[in-house]
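$ ./design --mode recover --in tokens.txt
reading tokens...
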């Protein structure tokens, strides 16, 4: 679990050994885009910080079988890491899946007022 701008909770899953910088930021899930929106919609907060991703903790990753075809997965530059320098910010370490039958729109949904 991490915090963005001191406000938004974000779901970072550590995927490597202690002391090794390796984590995956969950930026979206089925119709929810943005790491802050994901944690808010799923009710994830700092109480889960440091806990393992297991059913006992209340947060786990579950394989329900569906697979995204490799041709629908696109690697893009990372977002919000310009401070890391051009080389690291330009790494294609952000993965998104394209919807079936078309390309993904880059526009964000409008807010309801």
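writing sequence...
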């Amino acid at each position: 679990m991490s915090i963005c701008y001191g406000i938004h909770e974000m779901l970072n899953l550590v995927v490597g050994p202690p002391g090794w910088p390796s984590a995956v930021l969950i930026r979206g899930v089925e119709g929810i885009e943005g790491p802050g929106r994901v944690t808010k919609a799923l009710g994830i907060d700092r109480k889960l910080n440091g806990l393992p991703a297991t059913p006992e903790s209340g947060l786990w990753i579950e394989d329900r079988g569906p697979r995204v075809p490799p041709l629908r997965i696109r690697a893009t530059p990372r977002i919000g890491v310009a401070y890391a320098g051009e080389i690291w910010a330009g790494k294609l370490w952000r993965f998104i899946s394209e919807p079936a039958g078309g390309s993904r729109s880059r526009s964000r949904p409008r807010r309801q007022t």
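exit 0
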